[in-house]
Amino acid sequence: MDADFERGAEYAARRDETDPLAHLADRFYDPEDEWYVDGNSLGLLSEDAEEALDRAVSEWRDLAIRGWTDADPPWFHYGERLGDRLAPLVGATPEEVVVANSTTVNIHTLIGTFYDRAEGSNIVVDELDFPTDHYAVRAQLRQRGADPDEALTVVESRDGRTIETEDVVAAMDDDTAIVFLPSVLYRSGQLLDVERITAAAHDRDILAGFDLAHSVGAVPHDLSAVGVDFAVWCSYKYLNAGPGAIAGLYVNERHFGETPALAGWWGHEKETQFEMNPTYTPAADAGAYQIGTVPVLSAAPLAGSLDVFADAGDATDDTDALLETGIEAVREKSLRLTEYLIFLVDERLPDCEVGTPRDAERRGGHVAVEHPEAYRVSEALKERGVVVDFRPPNVVRICPSPLYTGYEDVWQVVEQLRQVVENEEYERFEERGGGVT
27 an active-site residue? Predict the structure, then answer.
């Protein structure tokens, strides 16, 4: 824990004054009279993303169908070009990354593809995964005649919050084909040890895949060097590309040449795609895992958002290759903000508990604040203008997204939370019903 942390708002203001990334917040549309700390669910719109979307609309208006060849970049190669720009954020070569589909569709095609070629019959997951991962994996097992109840090995949590690497490794056996885990647990914010899990899997001739939805754009990855076989992610959280924005995927180059389990014409080799041959010829790289036509208007905001990450790297004097993408600078600030948030919860909220690992190497970009009335607490916070979300059974997720959140924001959020809890303001709200949280 940072020994220099102090409790007062004046201290938070001083930290903001010396923050090299503070100026980036001016490029985001922050809802007026609110403290927005829900960027791990949906990132804010930036001027850069808005301009990129406007540019795509203008190209549609001015070029019409010629946009596929004459836009900047040409829409025909949009998925690949955006993949090139994303590759440094996940530690991959440009050929290993493509922007395509949705996260769940990417899970379907990658799990299906690699299960078909892997040794073994079981897939290792964990019980704290985001549900869509299990839905997709179970569906792919059923499609191949396997009983998911038998072929799915679920690693249990010891404390209901975290997953121990030792338990993941222990779950691997001679029948395991794939280990597929999140990089960061969506509820607690635990960052898993991707490198160690991948190494253990490969020692046993098991393929290792990861869902990076809650880490990409907040945590640097080194997928190629670590040897991860495949990965998926969304771009509407820390990448700030907008609701339902196009997703991304990574396939290690040693697996190039595989025919995807879900084949579609946009994954065909580009040189002969418009020859309209009845036989599918997959692209020679990760581009093969594109399925349908790239949704340009859902992809364009990502182009603008990546400009912000590039400028985050320029805000420092470090010339490290990763820092040039901004992801190292973003991670450094993210860790400071989450550590400060944990410090304030410990100091000022005796009725709340932190459910996120305190070790920086095991923490993603958000903090799980636990309270028995977490749902009603989250509703009371929203009434006060603090935008958070609730995850059952007892978690208020707070995300100080480093591109547009400062220390003073964190201090104010904790102050609002303190008043809600101490004054029991949550008692005025109904127990949880249905709907979005």
Answer: no
Q: Residue for token digits 């839905």?
A: 135
Task: Please name the helix (run of DSSP H) or strand (run of DSSP E) that holds residue 343, with its range, or none.
Answer: helix 327-348
- 168 vs 126: CA distance, rounded Å: 8
The angle, 0 to 180 degrees and rounded to 10, between the axes of the packed helices 47-63 and 296-314 is 140
Nearest to 402 by CA among 258, 237, 186, 201: 237
The CATH number given to 73-294 is 3.40.640.10
- Pairwise CA distance, residues 193 & 178, whole Å: 16
Burial class (CB in 10 A: 0-12, 13-18, 19+), 433: exposed
Domain ranges of the chain: 9-46+323-428, 73-294
7: tokens are 């409790």
Cis peptide before 148 (omega within 30 of 0): no
**The pTM of the whole model exceeds 0.85:** yes
Q: Is 333 a catalytic residue?
A: no
Alpha helices in 103-193 (DSSP H): 103-117, 131-143, 148-151, 165-171
**Could you tell me the CA-to-CA distances from 247 to 181, 237, 402 in Å, in that order?**
17, 11, 21
Per-residue pLDDT of the chain in tens (437 residues, 90 and over written 9): 455 898 889 999 999 999 999 999 999 999 888 999 999 999 999 999 999 999 999 999 999 999 999 999 999 999 999 999 999 999 999 999 999 999 999 999 999 999 999 999 999 999 999 999 999 999 999 999 999 999 999 999 999 999 999 999 999 999 999 999 999 999 999 999 999 999 999 999 999 999 999 999 999 999 999 999 999 999 999 999 999 999 999 999 999 999 999 999 999 999 999 999 999 999 999 999 999 999 999 999 999 999 999 999 776 555 444 445 689 999 999 999 999 999 999 999 999 999 999 999 999 999 999 999 999 999 999 999 999 999 999 999 999 999 999 999 999 999 999 999 999 999 999 988 777 77
Token pair 């580009």 is found at 270
Cα 313–chain centre separation: 19
Tell me if residue 130 is catalytic.
yes
Which of these is catalytic: 180, 236, 340, 343? 236
Residue of 307, 397, 418, 426 marked catalytic: 397
Residue 397 among the catalytic residues: yes
Catalytic residue among 211, 285, 307, 409: 211
CATH of 9-46+323-428, one of 3.90.1150.10, 3.20.20.70, 3.40.50.2300, 3.40.50.1010: 3.90.1150.10
